[in-house]
Amino acid sequence: MFITRSLGLKSCEIISKFFKSKKITSIRCISCAVQNKTHQERKLSNNGSWIKIYYFPYIRIAAVLNRLKLYQTAFTVANFPLSVIMYNNGLMELQSVQIVSGCAALACGTLYFITSFFRRLVGIISISKDQKLIKISHLTFWGRKRDLIVPLEDIVPLTDGDCNPNEVYIKLLRFSTEDILYFTLKFGNILDKSKFELVFGNLEVFGLKK
Q1: Who contacts 155 (Cβ-Cβ below 8 Å, separation ≥6)?
Q2: What does the similarity note say (predicted)?
Q3: Signed CA dihedral, 144, 136, 65, 59: sign only
């Protein structure tokens, strides 16, 4: 009886180690695949074989505001304990502490709300020289540029979408994901109309001759 139980426990340990090793191998494979994809995208992004077809000139302002929220957050975090210390030492009234902390928190919240849209705002759209890939550059949470490289066929043409190019902001939709990015034709510049229309369809359908 004791021997049977020992063999059963030993078998369970072996099976557990087997599946654990498989799981670790699977995680490592996924991690390697992600790293390889990131490396390939960086290599493609930096090889210089891209033609800009769209540019939003005010993207730098959006990047500055995106970074400003980080400084505002640091100020808010540092300001609250300082205000409490000053209040405890009789250098500040309770009402003043509440006003200062409330204003700082409100400013911080407002910046986060505004910049949540900026992170989805496209600054540059480029097409590869062989016209098979599209590079979409937009901002990250930290206000830096992030490049997405997708196949041309993945972009939903404006003629197939439910958006109106005459609006201030237009949805940039992809077939492979439900994530939405935005760009603007009112304030952005089309640098190569023929290639832009290759990606997004004929603009004259919407009465645009930009």
Answers
A1: 134, 172, 173, 174, 175, 199, 200
A2: Belongs to the TMEM186 family.
A3: positive
